[in-house]
Design goal:
Helices cover 41% and strands 21% of the residues. It has ten helices and seven strands.
């Protein structure tokens, strides 16, 4: 598992970085008022929202919600009640303070809490849908998060996961957490049905645009941008060794 303190520092720094917000927003096509949690594009948000099949008033869990921007947008689009969980207390505090794009009437239907992949803290079958954007690879052991997602989902509930998978498992330049990723295999292993894993080259092209823009930017003492530039160099060095994927699945109805 990554160190929560590392993510606490990142979220605190990036919340003060207008440069990072601009780079993410332009590369991913996001509106200025949407706080980016990771690398999901504006078009990708629409695809995830459609795949979740939520009705107004149902419960959506945003697992590894970060600063809450993506989950808030899903709730705005669907009318769902939002529960965001993240192991970074700083991210959760920022998410709880922010209004994002939710209307005044919707704000009471959003709550953010500290939790992790194996301690979600929700009752079995209490969620109508679960989303996890670009974070499932941090689950340890690998199946733990997917198993928890199935546990908290109502019968017939929907799961949407965005992630990366290796193009070949032998590439030692990739972190082990990426080399082990195989969502089709793992979702089936924990009992999900209607599993679909789709490659998303358009999302991945936008990610490359983001990395390249960050590398060109002048960090000028901005700690968040300094950290982003370091991540860029690593990401671009192994860019062709990964593929961007979008996985959906349904909890069994019996």
């Amino acid at each position: 598992m990554p160190d929560a303190q590392v993510f606490n520092a990142w979220h605190a720094d990036v919340a003060r970085s207008s440069a990072c917000d601009l780079i993410f927003g332009q590369a991913l096509g996001l509106p200025s008022e949407l706080v980016s949690n990771s690398l999901l594009t504006w078009a990708g948000i629409a695809e995830v929202a459609a795949a979740l099949r939520l009705a107004p008033g149902q419960t959506l869990v945003d697992l590894a919600c970060g600063r809450g921007g993506y989950g808030r947008e899903m709730a705005r689009r669907t009318g769902a009640r939002l529960v965001g969980l993240d192991f970074s207390a700083v991210a959760v505090a920022i998410a709880a303070r922010g209004t994002g794009r939710l209307s005044t009437g919707q704000l009471g239907r959003a709550g953010f809490f500290v939790g992790n992949f194996t301690a979600i803290g929700l009752r079995a079958h209490s969620a109508d849908a679960v989303m996890c954007v670009d974070a499932i690879q941090f689950s340890d052991p690998p199946l733990a998060a997917l198993g928890e997602c199935r546990r908290i989902l109502a019968r017939g509930g929907r799961l949407a996961v965005t992630a990366w998978e290796p193009t070949g498992t032998a590439d030692q330049r990739l972190p082990e957490r990426i080399r082990r990723m195989n969502l089709a295999r793992d979702l089936a292993a924990v009992g999900f049905e209607q599993v679909e894993v789709t490659g998303k080259p358009d999302w991945y092209a936008a990610e490359r645009t983001l990395w390249e823009a960050a590398l060109r930017a002048d960090a000028n003492g901005d700690p968040a941008l300094v950290a982003l530039k370091e991540e860029c160099a690593q990401a671009l060095a192994t860019f062709d060794s990964k593929r961007r994927v979008f996985a959906t699945a349904t909890a069994p109805v019996t």
